[in-house]
């Protein structure tokens, strides 16, 4: 994608379908006059009076306890510098989005139009009663240090400047584990720091608390080593200034154990790396280009332990591992500040988590059999679902132990359960799917590439590294559209109808005819069919000229699925083909089957659909809890529709006793744990959170998933084909670009899985 196209895409993302990235959503009923009279006048007076009597009741009756202000004056925005408060607002909204999806914390972003330290401090103090916590963001140093120091001292709610402490906390966890792997002690380490801004200073401060000695730290800024005779240094930089002659970064690195980079890209050469001590620890965290390229570094030193700020290399130092969960823990105990004890608790929790067995969901995201603690895994992955239940409680406990918690937690099991419930706010599944696909991208046929939206999807798939598109359609049209959207990559374009493809058409036709000649297909029929792109695309996959295919954007589902069923064999052991839709709901991913193929499945079919859906759920790291839904509850109706569901459940209970499945059951009972346990405590679903629904017929499944999608704005991935011998997946008519990209990622993962067998 060229620069102008990237710019257009970013601007479109932030402006449509409505400007910005966050909104305020009511949490109470407001449908009736009675509701409104409680929400506002006269009912609202009652909580006001209670808070007036006891100010702490503000946490009981308002959102204050779960509301964080993300505040900036726009003086140090990303790598863009001092661009002003209004220009910083997209970044602040983005930070708010991260707070919400990772920890369920609500955010108001506040942009303050002043560069005066005192004015800024007073502004924050004046609005502080609104919030349970303050996240300072993108404020230039050294002012940021003074602002944070004063606000921590003068406010009785948690305050943290994430630009400083976020990187420090995450990299400190990495350092602890790196030192263990290197067999070294912090107090013996010689450390070189490239960068002397707020993040570098905060990192160095925290490393000292871990045992690194101040006298063993050499810190550089853009002008060279920090020395005592430099009058331009801030008071905080003076702490790291040395009373010694100037030296180069190369000279300082000789014999160094640790290199911390928070400066600019490509400043460390392989020759410099080779001069470092055995088992060097290199944290090259300049973005987007590290101080030394990861691949170059590991090729230069096999004994290196390295981290970067990038997601495409191991050991990403990502602030999202810290700030959502630190604030979560601080808010939940009503901490009056975020102190050093709480930061260190987060450090040690992250370090410990990296040593524990990794959940299958994380292994799946990285496309590995098993991630284990080692040089390429010293800090947890942002995909790890345990972060919220490990880091937040550690921070909360540290707040209690250090005497800054006003609302101590007494039941830690109950607290952990409440944290797990918040995970529904974050649908990590799309990121997991995309990341897994990128680990081993495959050749994907886009059978309708001369449609603009399909081509846009193919472009994203290519540029994100999800797969290698093969574009089918009218070549001239595709080339024109490619030029229009700035898709300048050299990818394969095929028009199945042109003369140049006659040899391949005939070869495909002959192969197809041999499998269908006794089922009414002549060679001439087969040759004619190969001019149709869906037949051609399917044969490309069959003949190994592509790994997967996606189609269906411009044609009805039945017309596209027909050639797939005709040309593609079923998977080994499969006697039925079905589909499932993964719905990314507020309660987490839900699998709904069969949404597209089997109109009125038998009891035997339903059992097979349940088994295939369970297998697919596990492929994405979800342990299936399956409700076989109906209009009936456990025999309350003798209708044949309910009876077949009951029969399917009986078969599954007998032949697959380890599968958590039950029914027939109505959808509300299946999804409401309290109702289910009260009325049907005997059910295998009692006490379980259902994540998979098997419907009695196509009608009910298709209507349900489309209602969810449109009425609740629930993201849908699918229909995902089940039971096919090759990775072929069909879009719903009119699928969006995003839906097509997600399905392409699914197709890649399907190809990865089938390749293993």
**Beta-strand residue percentage:** 5-15%
- The secondary-structure class comes to alpha/beta
Shape: globular
Radius of gyration, in Å, reads: 29 Å
CATH topology name of the largest domain, in short, is Rossmann fold
Number of domains: 5
Largest sheet: 6 strands, mixed
What is the topology?
Layout: H1 3-15, H2 33-39, H3 45-53, H4 58-61, E1 67-72, H5 85-103, E2 106-111, H6 117-127, E3 133-136, H7 143-154, E4 159-161, H8 162-182, E5 191-194, H9 198-209, E6 217-221, E7 224-225, H10 235-238, H11 249-253, E8 258-261, H12 270-274, E9 281-284, H13 294-300, E10 305-308, H14 323-332, H15 340-353, H16 360-366, H17 387-401, H18 412-422, H19 429-439, E11 442-446, H20 452-463, E12 467-472, H21 475-485, E13 492-494, H22 502-516, H23 523-529, H24 533-542, E14 548-551, H25 557-567, E15 578-585, E16 588-593, H26 603-619, E17 625-629, H27 640-655, E18 660-665, H28 667-671, H29 673-679, E19 692-694, H30 698-711, E20 715-722, E21 728-730, H31 737-756
Parallel strand pairs: 1-2, 1-3, 3-4, 5-6, 5-8, 8-9, 9-10, 11-12, 11-14, 12-13, 14-21, 16-19, 17-18, 17-19
Antiparallel strand pairs: 6-7, 15-16, 15-20
Helix pairs in contact: 5-14, 6-7, 8-9, 8-15, 14-17, 15-17, 16-19, 19-31, 20-31, 22-23, 24-25, 26-27
């Amino acid at each position: 994608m060229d620069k102008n196209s990237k710019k257009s895409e970013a601007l479109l993302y932030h402006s449509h379908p409505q400007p910005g990235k966050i909104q305020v959503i009511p949490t109470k009923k407001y449908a009736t006059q009675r509701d409104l009279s409680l929400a506002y006048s006269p009912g609202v007076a009652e909580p006001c009076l209670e808070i007036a009597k006891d100010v702490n009741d503000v946490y009981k009756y308002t959102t204050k306890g779960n509301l964080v202000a993300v505040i900036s004056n726009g003086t140090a925005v990303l790598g863009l510098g001092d661009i002003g408060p209004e220009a910083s607002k997209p970044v602040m909204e983005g930070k708010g989005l991260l707070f919400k999806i990772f920890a369920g914390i609500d955010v108001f972003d506040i942009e303050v139009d002043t560069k005066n330290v005192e004015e800024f401090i007073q502004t924050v103090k004046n609005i502080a009663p609104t919030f349970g916590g303050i996240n300072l963001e993108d404020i230039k140093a050294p002012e940021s240090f003074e602002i944070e120091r004063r606000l921590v001292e003068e406010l009785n709610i948690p305050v943290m400047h994430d630009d400083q402490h976020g990187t420090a906390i995450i990299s400190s966890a990495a350092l602890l584990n790196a030192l263990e792997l290197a067999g070294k002690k912090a107090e013996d380490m010689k450390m070189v720091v490239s960068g002397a801004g707020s993040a570098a200073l905060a990192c160095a401060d925290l490393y000292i608390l871990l045992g690194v000695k101040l006298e063993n730290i050499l810190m550089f800024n853009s002008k060279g080593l920090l020395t005592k005779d430099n009058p331009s240094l801030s008071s905080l930089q003076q702490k790291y200034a040395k009373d010694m002659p100037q030296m180069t970064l190369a000279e300082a690195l000789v014999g160094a154990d640790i290199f911390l980079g928070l400066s600019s890209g490509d400043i460390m050469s392989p020759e410099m790396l080779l001069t470092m001590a055995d088992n060097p620890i290199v944290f090259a965290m300049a973005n987007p280009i590290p101080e030394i390229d990861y691949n170059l570094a590991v090729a230069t030193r096999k004994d290196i332990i390295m981290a970067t700020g990038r997601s495409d290399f191991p050991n990403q130092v990502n602030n999202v591992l810290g700030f959502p969960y630190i604030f979560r823990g601080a808010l939940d105990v009503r901490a009056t500040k975020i102190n050093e004890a709480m930061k260190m608790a987060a450090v040690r929790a992250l370090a410990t988590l990296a040593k524990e067995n990794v959940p299958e969901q994380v292994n799946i995201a990285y496309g590995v059999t098993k991630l284990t603690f080692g040089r390429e895994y010293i800090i947890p992955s942002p995909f790890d679902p345990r972060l919220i239940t490990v880091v937040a409680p550690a921070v909360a406990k540290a707040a209690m132990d250090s005497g800054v918690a006003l609302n101590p937690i007494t039941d830690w099991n109950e607290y952990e359960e409440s944290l797990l419930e918040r995970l529904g706010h974050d649908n990590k599944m799309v990121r997991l799917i995309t990341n897994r696909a990128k680990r081993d991208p495959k050749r994907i046929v886009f059978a309708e590439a001369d449609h603009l939206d399909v081509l846009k999807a193919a472009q994203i798939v290519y540029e994100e590294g999800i797969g290698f598109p093969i574009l089918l359609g009218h070549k001239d049209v595709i080339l024109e559209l490619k030029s229009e959207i700035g898709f300048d990559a050299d990818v394969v374009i095929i028009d199945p109808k042109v003369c140049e493809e006659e040899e391949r058409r005939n070869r495909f036709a002959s192969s197809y005819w041999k499998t269908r000649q006794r089922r009414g297909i002549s060679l001439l029929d087969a040759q004619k069919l190969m001019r149709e792109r869906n037949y051609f695309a399917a044969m490309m996959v069959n003949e190994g000229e592509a790994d997967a295919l996606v189609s269906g954007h411009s044609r009805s589902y039945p017309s596209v699925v027909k050639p797939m069923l005709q040309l593609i064999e079923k998977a080994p052991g499969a006697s039925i083909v079905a589909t499932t839709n993964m719905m990314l709901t507020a309660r987490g991913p839900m699998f709904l089957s069969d949404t597209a193929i089997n109109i009125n499945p038998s009891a035997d079919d339903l059992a097979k659909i349940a088994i295939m859906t369970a297998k697919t759920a596990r492929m994405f790291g979800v342990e299936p809890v399956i409700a076989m839904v109906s209009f009936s509850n456990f025999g309350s109706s003798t209708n044949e529709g309910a009876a077949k569901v009951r029969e399917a459940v009986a078969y599954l209970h007998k032949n697959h006793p380890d599968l958590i499945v039950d029914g027939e059951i109505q959808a509300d009972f299946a999804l409401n744990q309290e109702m289910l346990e009260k009325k049907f405590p005997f059910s295998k679903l009692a006490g379980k959170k259902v994540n998979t629904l098997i419907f009695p017929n196509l009608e009910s499944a298709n209507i349900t998933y489309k209602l969810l999608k449109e009425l609740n704005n629930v993201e849908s991935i699918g229909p995902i084909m089940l039971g096919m011998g090759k990775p072929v997946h069909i879009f719903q008519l009119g699928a969006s670009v995003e839906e097509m990209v997600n399905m392409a990622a699914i197709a890649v993962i399907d190809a990865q899985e089938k390749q293993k067998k």
